[in-house]
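pipeline/complex-builder :: batch 7 item 3
reading input block
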Amino acid sequence: MKPQVEIYDTTLRDGSQGEGVNFSVADKLRIAEKLDAFGVHYIEGGWPGSNPKDIEFFSEARKKKFKNAQLAAFGSTRKKGVPVEQDDQVRLLIEAGTPVVTIFGKTSMLHVKEVLRCTPEENLAMIGDTVHFLKDHGKYVIYDAEHCFDGYKLDPEYAVATWQAAEKAGADIIVLCDTNGGCLPGEIAEITKTAIGKLNCRVGIHTHDDIGLGVANALAALEAGAMQVQGTINGYGERTGNCNLTSVIPCLALKLKKTSVPDKSLPKLKELSQFVDEIANLRHNPRQPWVGSSAFAHKGGAHVNAVQKVSASYEHIDPALVGNYRTVLVSDLSGRSNIVMKAQELGFKLAGDTPELKTILHRVKELENQGLEFEAAEASLALLIDRTLRHRELPFRVDAYHVSMRRNGKDFVCEATVKVIVGGKSAHTVAEGDGPVNALDAALRLGLMKFFPQLQNVTLTDYKVRILDSTTGTAAKTRVLIQSTDGRREWGTVGVSENIIEASLQALVDSMEFALLKK
Ligand SMILES: [Zn+2]
């Protein structure tokens, strides 16, 4: 069934323009897969005309199969004075090979005259030519009307003419953009209604959060009849950010009662939000509406008491609906259901009455207290569950290791020795590397390969470090997140310690153990 509102995610494009957000191609692919599994309808992967990284992303993404989402490439209308078929930026949009192409064009006379510096007619031709060209190449075309609301307020007649130019050329949907993020919900609703009245094609909304109204403005447009919303996970984006989909999605489902992503995805919202923060290497914001760790945390005695009696007394929804939980009650019950849900997703047979559940839950809480987070390290969680459920022995043990570093003039030399024990046998290996972790990884791998030759195919694809509590200076804990692959599947593991080498070793050991776990 068609959803009432389509979710168009631009975390990988508009979101990556946010300060402190920087995604590698591998990061983008992981996020795209997660968004697809969650059930968003469109994933805007990047702007191929603006950087080579995005071209690489699209060539990699083409090899993947997405179940729910359509991939979109983003770009602009053709340049002034250049025939569309000779415009390099437009050519790259076709070459991205996506089913959907989103282009933005100018709505505002101010921008046409002062920024673009062309005639109003030439701008209309740029919009029409580009949409037409993309339609001729079989694309589903989304037209983003930049500065749509400000432009309409300045010169309504011309704004309407730009939308109609896109529509006439065959645009499938016209998305009204509050590019500067300074409009109010009332005017957004009114102008959206006007646009819907003037256009026969469908209308969408793209807002920014410059005055704290990104989500409110998007909802105002959706209530006025828009049927697509563009935004980012956790509200990433330039300046104060884009419309936050992590708020829009539950507002649609639970407040406006409109369908968008599949119902079964809603309880995974908190996990999605944390996953994207982990990949961006950003601290999860505890005060984030719906999904923050404080969103349902009750401190005041009266609140706690009342919530214990009737949860609805101080909570606007049941936190479990969005995968969140109440924190004062140290809710074993909701903690339990979260773990059961996750374990089943990872392929384990675990139910609410499995005797080992208590041990698993206890161990997870203990590790989370130490700073482990499993959102981007599901392999470490899978190992923990598997070890407990099957009461199995570890396939190998690291008995001892040593890492050293020397500087000789300008050259660094890192060397690691590792002693691993498998069954009754041991192996002692030594390796060099560019850095201490690299040397440790090489030595561990060398030792294990004597017993498990299949580990030869396992490689490390990503390594991320975060200092967890920077206020305590050198005693701060370090969390290491690594991503590995054997060419067929990819998995993430995690380690935490006051010592970065030890944290890295934990993550490496988990990675190798996971590689051995499933054939
Ligand atoms: Zn934007």
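note: Confidence is low (pLDDT under 50) at residues 329-334.
queue -> next item
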